[in-house]
Write a structure and sequence with these properties.
The chain is of the alpha+beta class and 207 residues long. It is 28% helix and 22% strand. A hairpin with an 8-residue loop joins strand 3 and strand 4.
Amino acid sequence: MKFNSFLVGELFDIHPTTAYKMGNDELFSHKGTTLVLSNSSANNGIGGYCGLAPTEQGGVITFSDTTTGADTMFYQADPFIGYPHVQGMYPYQRDKWNDKCCLYVISCIRKSAGNGWSYAVKFNRALVKKLSVELPVIASSDSNHKYTVDDIDWQYMQDRIAELDAYLKATGLNDYELTEEDKEVLSLENQHLTKQMLWELIAKMGR
C-alpha cells in the first residue's frame, strides 16, 4: 500500500460551529434531545442536550480550540448544536468522507499532532490546517505522478476501520479500562477508553 502526505487544510474547510447566542443556563432550560457540543474531551465532546433546533448537520469532525491537544477531536454523526470555541471540519469532498474515513483521519491527525501543545501554543484551526497526515493512495504506474486528493484510497480507509471494528466486537474490547501504560501509548488523558478512542490504535499499529 502506498501513502502520501496531505495537509489537513487540503481536505477540510475548518471554521467555528454555529452556536446559539445565549448562556448555558438559558440554553439547557429548553429540555429536549438535541446534542449540544462542548469543549470537553469526554463523551464524544457532547456537553448535554436541549430542545432547540440543531445548528449543524452531522457527518463532520469537531474539536475545541481551547485545549492543548487533539483529545477533543471527534466525529459527529448526528445533527447538533455548536458551541463557542468548537471548530468544525467540513470535507471539501463531502460525498467521499463517510464515518469510517473520518474516524481514520482523526487517528492520523492525532498521530501527527503529537503532544507538543501548551496553553501558549493551543490546538487552534490555523495550526490544524497546517498539520500533515499520511493517507493511503491508489498507486500510479507513472513514477512522476504527483498525488492529489483525487488519488486517495477511500476504500482502504473504510476497510481498515471495519477490520478494527470487527476485532473489537470479537474480543469484547468495546468497553475497556485504560492502564497507565495504555494512556502513555495512546497519548490520552482519559481514564476510560471509548470505542472511538480505539481508532487511535490504527496509527500506533503501523496504519
